[in-house]
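Incident log, support desk, overnight shift.

02:14 A customer reports that sequence design results differ from what the structure should imply. Their input is reproduced verbatim below. On-call engineer (initials T.W.) acknowledged and began investigating.
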């Protein structure tokens, strides 16, 4: 099974929601893919934000068992593709792991995924919808 890695800042909001939404898509479409997530400045073993948990529950998905994880060379090298939430995240990943340039892209192409951190439920809801839209536009079969 191929791994797809999603990267944000603290691994509490955007990348865990992307991981959860992507795994739902992969399962429904019968793809041999598994999504993971991490953050460029994440600590080890923290929880997803309360609002991210609530929004994923609205989608009928579970995020309770998520534990934050910093990006590591091993995690990145094992991935078939790495999707960052922003161009700045992509730049950071490539500074640390320049040999993975062919694997790294921004999920929204030229557009960053908005950061919901500190926002209300509506801000998280909008962010999740943005992530889902980008995920649904991707040709996952190429992996």
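02:41 Re-run completed on a clean worker. Output:
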């Amino acid at each position: 099974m191929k791994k797809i890695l999603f990267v944000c800042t603290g691994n509490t909001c955007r990348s865990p929601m992307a991981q959860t939404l992507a795994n739902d898509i992969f399962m429904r479409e019968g793809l041999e893919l598994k999504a993971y997530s991490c953050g460029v400045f994440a600590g080890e073993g923290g929880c997803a934000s309360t609002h991210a948990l609530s929004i994923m529950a609205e989608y009928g998905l579970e995020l309770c068992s998520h534990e934050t994880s910093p990006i590591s060379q091993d995690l990145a090298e094992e991935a078939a593709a790495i999707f960052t939430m922003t161009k700045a995240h992509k730049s950071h990943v490539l500074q640390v792991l320049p040999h993975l340039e062919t694997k790294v892209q921004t999920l929204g192409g030229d557009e960053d995924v908005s950061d919901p951190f500190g926002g209300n439920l509506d801000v998280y809801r909008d962010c999740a919808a943005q992530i889902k839209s980008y995920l649904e536009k991707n040709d996952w079969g190429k992996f």
